[in-house]
Specification:
The chain is mostly helical. The chain is built from three helices and no strands. The chain starts with a helix and ends in a 13-residue tail after the last helix. Keywords: Membrane, Transmembrane, Transmembrane helix.
């Protein structure tokens, strides 16, 4: 039963972080609105509960905290980077234009 609840908590954590990354890439003004604050609070609260549940099950709190932070950073990067690339370069018209000036055919 403990394994399932830990997976559910990580699912909620990843969902909050992924939603934050989408907001940051597409609509950065919404990060300071109520929906952004709810997502930030949800990510922080689920991260705290994950660390506490690991601590109660006998795991190292520092390892758990480092794992939660690294997972959050990876999820944010993997969601934010492609959306930023597509939104910034598609707007400029350089989305599929590659510079091969030094390469001869």
């Amino acid at each position: 039963m403990a394994k399932r609840s830990a997976r559910d908590l990580f699912g909620a954590f990843i969902g909050c972080i992924g939603s934050l990354a989408m907001l940051a890439a597409l609509l950065p003004g919404l990060l300071s609105s109520a929906i952004g604050m709810i997502l930030i609070g949800g990510a922080i609260m689920t991260g705290i509960v994950i660390v506490l549940s690991d601590l109660l099950s006998g795991r190292n709190a520092l390892k758990s905290l480092i794992g939660v932070v690294l997972m959050g950073m990876l999820v944010f990067a993997f969601v934010y980077a492609p959306l930023w690339y597509l939104s910034s370069l598609a707007a400029s018209g350089d989305l599929l234009r590659f510079n091969f000036s030094g390469v001869t055919p």
